[in-house]
Amino acid sequence: MFGFGSSNSSFPQTKLIPLIIQLGDFLKKGYEHSEELRSVGTLIDVDTLSIFIRQQMETWNPTLNEKSILDDKTKDAAARFLAGIAINLTKKEEEKC
After folding, report:
1. What angle do CA 25, 63, 75 make, to 5 degrees?
2. Per-residue confidence (pLDDT) for residue 7, from 0 to 100
3. Which helix (H) or strand (E) covers residue 68, if one does?
4. Would residue 66 be called left, alpha or beta, if left means φ above 0 and alpha means ψ between -120 and 50 degrees?
5. What is the pLDDT of residue 1?
6. Which positions ≥6 away from 63 have C-beta within 8 Å?
7. Looking at residue 12, what is its pLDDT?
8. Which of 9, 10, 25 is nearest to 62 (CA)?
9. Which residue from 70, 16, 17, 22 is spatially nearest to 30, judged by alpha carbons?
């Protein structure tokens, strides 16, 4: 159904690879920002980090077949998703409980 080898689907998965790579770059920026703040004793929450990531996405406007694929609400959701992952990656073991 979602295999990479299926040629029957019209889903443009290979064209989405740059989008996925860029999302990974935004995740890295969020992670590094969270780690930077943690190193000086400042803890950041998911909502605050999502604002930081969303600002990084401000001028990003990926297209697929000349069609914009991210509206503002989708960027907001993507930023929140990536912020959640970044925060979970930076949590210390004792904070995870």
Report:
1. 55
2. 60
3. strand 67-68
4. left
5. 46
6. 69
7. 87
8. 25
9. 22
Helices (H) and strands (E) in the chain, counts: 3, 2
- Alpha carbon distances (Å) from 94 to 16, 47, 80, 85, 97: 37, 21, 23, 17, 6
Domain residue ranges of the chain, discontinuous segments joined by + = 31-92
| Average pLDDT by stretches of 10, the chain with 97 residues | 61 90 97 94 94 97 92 97 96 63
Give residue 58's Cα distance to chain centre: 13
For residues 91 and 10, give the distance between their C-alpha atoms in angstroms, rounded to a whole number: 40
The whole-angstrom separation of Cα 15 and Cα 7 is 14
Task: Say whether pTM exceeds 0.85.
Answer: no
> Which residues fall within 8 angstroms of residue 61, CB to CB, at 6 or more apart?
68, 70
